[in-house]
Amino acid sequence: MTPQQKDALLQLADALPPADLEALMRFAEFLHSRAGAPLQGLAPVASAPPEPVEIPPPAEIPRPEEEKVVAAVKRLSQTYFMLDKKKMLGMTSDLVTQHVLHGREATAVIDELERAFAEQYRQLVQDGDG
Question: Are 53 and 127 in contact (CB under 8 A)?
Answer without folding.
Answer: no
